[in-house]
Amino acid sequence: MRYILSYLTFRFNKSFMRKADLINIISDKTGIPKVDVLVTLETMFKEIKSSLASGENLYVRGFGSFIIKKRAAKIGRNIKKNVAVAIPEHYIPAFKPSKEFMKDIKNANLNAVPKPEDENED
Questions:
Q1: What's the Rg (C-alpha) of the chain?
Q2: Taking the model in full, what pTM does it have?
Q3: Which of 12, 15, 22, 11 is nearest to 113 (CA)?
Q4: What is the CATH number of domain 57-110?
């Protein structure tokens, strides 16, 4: 019983969403079985990764862009050994939200979202 209560407290007092939560919401709103939603999401994530890994950017109109950013070579420092380390040029994935996406977030009432409370406060 304690596990169920802690899960419900966690479930409704958080300010983030996990993949399982997203699957449940999509399944509830569309009526598509959760297994099919899971397969679809996993396939989408896999295709985004493979697109970026092959050097292609992915643009989703009204949502945003998954892009590859180039990081220049630089000299870093290993602070434990106090030694300079050469960091080679490399690429990192990034997400750039669309103007429409940004406008929707700016206009959202984020103050109405319940914030997680500290467990130490009793």
A1: 21
A2: 0.68
A3: 15
A4: 4.10.520.10
Q: Residue 54's Cα: distance from chain center in Å?
A: 21
79-96 pLDDT per residue, tens: 999 999 999 999 999 999
Cα–Cα distance, 106 to 104 (Å, whole number): 6
Query: Is-contact 35 23, C-beta < 8 A?
Result: no
Instruction: Give the integer Cα–Cα distance in Å for 35 and 23.
Output: 9
SS3 content of the chain, % helix, strand, coil (to 5): 45, 25, 30
Q: Which amino acid is at 30?
A: T
Ranges of CATH 4.10.520.10 domains, the chain: 57-110
